Structures are given as C-alpha cells and as structure tokens.
Amino acid sequence: xxxxxxxxxxxxxxxxxxxxxxxxxxxxxxxxxxxxxxxxxxxxxxxxxxxxxxxxxxxxxxxxxxxxxxxxxxxxxxxxxxxxxxxxxxxxxxxxxxxxxxxxxxxxxxxxxxxxxxxxxxxxxxxxxxxxxxxxxxxxxxxxxxxxxxxxxxxxxxxxxxxxxxxxxxxxxxxxxxxxxxxxxxxxxxxxxxxxxxx
Length: 199
Hints:
Protein name: IgE-binding protein
InterPro entries: PhiA_domain
Structural class: mainly beta
Strand order of the largest sheet: 1-4-7-8-11
Signal peptide: 1-16
Keywords: Signal
Organism: Ampelomyces quisqualis (Powdery mildew agent)
C-alpha cells in the first residue's frame, strides 16, 4: 500500500514537471470577444426620447413594434436566444448586429441614408453604401451610458406604416430630411451577448 502511494506521488511530480504539460492559460491572455450593447435614443421633449433601437425588415427604427428576429428552433432548440431586443456589436469603424447566425449581419448606411443591415448569409450591400464610419464612446465618470456615433450623425423620421415608429437614417450627402425628422443621440448600454439568432 505504501509502495502504491509513493509511486503515485512520484508519477504526479514527474508529470507536473514535464515540458509536455501545458500551463494553465492566464486570465490576461484570454482573447476578448466583441462588446455587445443595446441602444436607446435621447432627444428631450420629443416623440423619440428614450425609444429603443429595433431591427426590422432590414432597417432600423426607434419605437414601434419589436425586432423581426428569427431562430431555427428545429435545429437550435432551447439554445435559441429570446430575440426580444436588438443587440449590436463592434463600433470601431464597422458595426454589426449581435447575432449567432454564421457569418453575422453587418450594419451599414444605404445611399439614401437609411440605417440598414445585411440579410443572414450575405455580405451584399447596395453600391455607394457606407460601412465604416461608426464609433462607440464608452461610459465615463458617473454616466452609465455610452454613445454610438455615425460620422455625420443620426436622424429619425416618422415611419410610413402604422406602429412602425421612427425610421433611423445617417445624415449623408444627397439625403434630404423634412422638418418632421429629428436628430438624436444614440445611448448605448452594454449587455452580456447576442439576443437573436438573426434579425
């Protein structure tokens, strides 16, 4: 019995000292994943104040109905995210939706200024679209919100259908907006991860 205990101790010591044993990864060397966040609008005393940004039908809206999310429940089952909110990721030049679908979904500003996103499994966008003028400012001081920025700013215009809310646009050259359209700040709030398989 003593021999078996001594042998086990010796084997454990040799294995621990072996150059073949891999060191445990340190927390600081772990790669960081994308930062996920949601957006609400800020424009005091206006119909768009504190409205959630939602992804619906390839465009973005403030208020109105819920996101148009989808998950293949037959394949994914209980792992399907709720899809109740619109989550974004990135913001260092480019921006994407916070989704699980392979290939992701990229956010862009269409030539007419509409804030838009690609369909799942495709990176195709209209010619003349802008993909790389987004940035995110992290919260600072006592402010719990950050800011999502588009280089020339965001504006929201009343949607064309009932209960669609206000459609979101980037202010781009050649796009004109009527007096009913409102500029706003896009406040960000970090979340743990994607909230949809795809939008």
